Amino acid sequence: MQDLEHLHSWHANWRDLRVVVLGLGVTGFSVADTLAELGAKVLVVAEKADEELVDILDVIGVTHITGESAQGLPAQVIHFDPQLVVTSPGVKPEHELLAWAAKQNTPVWVDIELAWRLRDKTSKIADWIAVTGTNGKTTTVQMVEAMLNQGGFRAAACGNIGTPILDAIRDPEGFDALVVELSSFQLHYVKHIEPFSSAVLNLADDHLDWHGSFQAYSDAKSKIYENTQVACVYNLNDLATEKMVENADVQEGARAIGFTTGLPGRSHVGFVEDILCDRAFLDDRANSALEVATLEDLSSIGVLTPHLMANAAAATALARSYGVLPEDIKTALVNFRLDAHRIELVAEQDQIRWVDDSKATNPHAAAASLNSFEKVVWIVGGLLKGVDLGDLVSKYANRLSAAIVIGKEREAVLAALAQNAPGIPVTEISDQDNVMHQVVSAAKQIAKAGDVVLLAPAAASMDQFKDYADRGNQFAEQVKIQLEQI
């Protein structure tokens, strides 16, 4: 195995280190660009590559293999004899190039590992507040970023969201804190980081096709708590996250801080009636609590759901761990707005609400939506990623007025509905180009006053749409067109 222990600083000698970068998306490009700036010898291998990014690689002098030539293990990689491979996190460890690297004892990193070692580029070295979970990561990370900035800190959301983390650590002004969203893929590959505070928001079946088992997925998520300095934030309503904290090897003095949508105990953040309270970061936490915000404040964000309440409580715990004042957290929450396609009210007509939660790409996220409404015409289906919908359907069958099934893997969805909600009317939309036109047309015929027509597919979108945003946009567009025709 290559000894890279001397490479723990931007100012270390990275020059002439031979690095293969696998993948050329936004993350892969940031890795190649950073390593080129450090003077490393870089070879990019990417089957799919944006021509514009390839052109920039040529400008900065980075060698690349793209298209069919990049499949499997190119001979050029073997000849290059890399000392390090940095992979895009979505690439499975079984990939031929990564399997070869493992046999060669060549270290395999992702951008997170590289960024941790390079975080001292500027004199202001940012603390990392790290967040993962099956659902709610992006919203929580954005909330924490807003809270920190409102509190007078310079903070940026990065990682598995928006800005690549290597771009953030190369910002010439530097940051007080980086709020880092971490996916299970990234965490699988990460060897060592030391978050200021960390959180696992929840844990449920997802990406089992990638990880191979729920245990492997859970093990990846749990790595976020390792070496945490100040606060390990966990979900009081999800025992698995508490177990992760108990088993983590943290730094001395790090505290376990629970969040909940219910009453907070000592060292918890939660809700007392309609008030979000902090009983964790105050001296007399045994007998008192700090008021942070009200449910009315949260309702200004969007549709007030338990999922939103949980995200706000988790974000509050992380922000309070960093010293943000309650009044600044409240201001940030009042002004906060959700990204599109997250339990977003698209239209309301004839006492029927049309809600876009296309971001619900797995059963756990769909459960958060279904749990928020009493009577639902549920639009469900897509790429299931190896997950069974049976438990989800069974749990929320009593809330379903009807189901509209889309996606290429419809048979599994139809079977789950037939077995676990046999009395529910089901409409199947065949695999065709105008899917959302058919969906909305069917929903118009089915929905009655008091229903919520809910796009919460519990599945990925790439079988019929460009991505979840495209799926949500097409839904919203068809709702607008067809409701105007009534």
Q: Estimate the mean pLDDT confidence.
A: 94
Helix content: 25-40%
Q: Any idea how many domains?
A: 3
Instruction: Report how far apart the termini are.
Output: 68 Å
Question: Could you explain the architecture of this structure?
Answer:
The structure is a single chain. By secondary structure, this protein is an alpha/beta fold. The relative contact order is 0.08. Strand 2, helix 2 and strand 3 (63-66) form a beta-alpha-beta unit. The chain contains 19 helices and 20 strands. The model has no long low-confidence stretch (mean pLDDT 94). Helix content is 36%, strand content 20%. It folds into 3 domains: 18-109, Rossmann fold, CATH 3.40.50.720; 114-335, Mur-like, catalytic domain (UDP-N-acetylmuramoyl-L-alanine:D-glutamate ligase); 344-484, Mur ligase, C-terminal domain (Protein-Tyrosine Phosphatase, Chain A, Alpha-Beta Complex). It starts with 17 loop residues before the first strand and ends with a helix.
SSE topology:
Elements: E1 18-24, H1 26-38, E2 41-49, H2 51-60, E3 63-66, H3 75-80, E4 84-87, H4 96-103, E5 108-109, H5 111-117, E6 127-132, H6 137-150, E7 155-159, H7 165-169, E8 177-181, H8 184-189, E9 197-200, H9 208-211, H10 214-222, E10 231-235, H11 239-247, E11 255-259, E12 268-272, E13 275-278, E14 290-294, H12 295-299, H13 306-321, H14 326-335, E15 344-349, E16 352-356, H15 363-370, E17 376-380, H16 390-396, E18 400-405, H17 410-420, E19 426-428, H18 435-446, E20 452-455, H19 468-484
Parallel strand pairs: 1-2, 1-4, 2-3, 4-5, 6-8, 6-9, 7-8, 9-10, 10-11, 11-12, 16-20, 17-18, 17-20, 18-19
Antiparallel strand pairs: 12-13, 13-14, 15-16
